[in-house]
Design a protein that fits this description.
The chain has twelve helices and seven strands. By secondary structure, it is an alpha/beta fold.
């Protein structure tokens, strides 16, 4: 670990109450690291507090955590990247344990899965809506991508350089964690989870995550990523839904035809035919896009393999 170049990435928006203590905690946990605080156009003294605490500060004026993460991944060059939040809820002393797991098993991502402490259970650090949504989305992602993660929304992650420099970040907001998770699942990258304490926010510090608004945005991101990474499954599901609707509408018409020899509701018959044709088109689109998706996955894998693994890069250093 001592020979590696470690970067601590802290995306922040209005975290003047906590950022200095977070920087100090990571300085103590990883004294050999460089700490970067990217201020997302805060309206308070976040940048000043971070700079005074000894962090390297930059500003990303486009609002949204995804915008900040994309900028950080593009700007910063390191062997190991540790990403956390500036709100003081993540446990800095756990960082060496995450890094050790990353290096020992030659992984590309280690997720610090959040484990509630006594203080956080009695606070709003992990609100009921967030807890319920997290469990639901964890189950949904594992169902769609055949891999179990216990905490896909954790912002506490450690990455290899190979992961960071081949990750195509498109997310704008809090859906960035979903995108990171799905990227690793789609390319079947070596990843792991390590349980870490999740602390309560200090008094006066408020979560920027809206359970309802951000929940719908994250759900939309999951469906978009499903369409991009598994188009045959996505469009086959559409085809089956449309085919079922078409058959449901067609059955009464077919029975009337057998009984009377005529089709009394011609508009319904036309609608039924149209729905089935749209379903068939969806299925054909899925077949075509599946080939396109496979080609894109091959290109991403070739780019990924062009960068040395973590253990290899540490040996070279």
């Amino acid at each position: 670990m001592n020979k590696s170049k470690i970067a601590i990435l802290l995306p922040c928006y209005n975290e003047e109450l906590t950022i200095a203590s977070v920087v100090a905690a990571f300085q103590h946990a990883l004294p050999e690291s460089t700490i970067y605080v990217y201020d997302n156009a805060s309206t308070d003294q976040t940048a000043v507090q971070a700079r005074n605490a000894g962090a390297t500060v930059a500003v990303e004026r486009r609002r949204g955590k995804g915008e900040v993460v994309r900028r950080m991944f593009a700007d910063i060059d390191a062997d190991i990247y540790v990403m956390a939040d500036g709100d003081g809820t993540y446990d800095a002393p756990s960082a060496p344990k995450l890094i050790e797991r990353l290096i020992t098993e030659n992984l590309d991502m280690v997720v610090g899965s959040r484990q509630e402490t006594a203080d956080s259970k009695n606070s709003e650090a992990y609100r009921t809506g967030h807890r319920l949504g997290n469990r639901l989305f964890n189950w949904f992602v594992s169902l769609l991508f055949s891999r179990q993660f216990s905490d896909i929304f954790s912002g506490y992650r450690v990455f290899s350089r190979r992961f960071v420099k081949t990750f195509p970040a498109f997310a704008k907001g809090f859906e960035i964690e979903t995108e990171l998770t799905v990227h690793s699942l789609d390319l079947r990258l070596p990843v792991a989870e390590v349980a870490t304490p999740y602390k309560a926010r200090p008094e006066g510090s408020e979560s920027k995550l809206n359970s309802l608004t951000d929940g719908f945005r994250i759900l939309g991101t999951i469906f978009m990523l499903l369409k991009e990474t598994k188009p045959i499954q996505f469009f086959t599901a559409l085809f089956l839904a449309l085919a079922l609707l078409s058959i449901t509408l067609a059955v009464p018409l077919f029975i009337s035809y057998l009984e009377t020899g005529s089709v009394p509701r011609v508009p319904t018959a036309i609608l039924t035919t149209g729905i089935m044709l749209v379903g068939v088109v969806c299925f054909i689109c899925g077949l075509i896009l599946d080939s396109v998706s496979r080609s894109r996955r091959e290109i991403k894998l070739l780019h990924y393999l062009s960068i040395p693994s973590l253990q290899q890069s540490l040996k070279d250093d």
